[in-house]
Design goal:
With 168 residues, the chain is mainly alpha-helical. The chain is built from five helices and four strands.
Length: 168
């Protein structure tokens, strides 16, 4: 925008298209695409990968600075909003349920079953507070959360509160 050179705008739009192209139909994003191997196919919350993708998309479709002034067209912003909403649905679907109780999220979830998944040898399926914290913050930032979102946040916070003093 500062240069007025449409090549930069066009490159940005291609980058957004790339982000949208990586999303699974269930709303999740893998660690890498289009070429994937091993654990890279899983829905990835690790290192806030999916949360950061969703936050960036939201900033663009809401035209928050510096993403305003026609950086993306209406069709592309609508696609980003749809992708964001699908991402929220994926987050709700992947929240770990133990003995019928919602808890937190894992670093990776299987892209088909949505269950917690193995990644590298030291990344076992587990309850992950760090990744869950970013997810909770994202859910809490939604302007009009429905009851499912509120339940997800309250359940995750209750789980964290219950286990916060565990020492290993």
């Amino acid at each position: 925008q500062a240069t007025g050179d449409n090549r930069y705008r066009d490159a940005f739009r291609k980058a957004v298209h790339y982000l949208l192209s990586g999303q699974y139909e269930n709303g999740g994003w893998p660690q890498f695409w289009p070429v994937q191997r091993d654990y890279q196919i899983h829905i990835t919350y690790n290192d806030d990968a999916m949360v950061n993708t969703m936050l960036m998309l939201r900033n663009v479709y809401e035209e928050n600075e510096p993403y305003g002034n026609g950086l993306c067209d209406e069709r592309q912003r609508a696609a980003m909003k749809k992708a964001f909403d699908k991402g929220v649905e994926c987050i709700l679907a992947t929240q770990i349920r133990t003995n019928g109780v919602l808890t937190v999220w894992c670093q990776q979830h299987d892209h088909v079953t949505l269950q917690p998944a193995y990644a590298r040898a030291y990344e076992l399926p587990s309850y992950c507070v760090q990744e869950s914290s970013g997810i909770i913050a994202l859910l809490m930032s939604l302007p009009n959360p429905d009851e499912r979102v509120k339940t997800a946040v309250h359940s995750a916070m209750a789980w964290i509160d219950k286990y916060k003093s565990l020492q290993f």
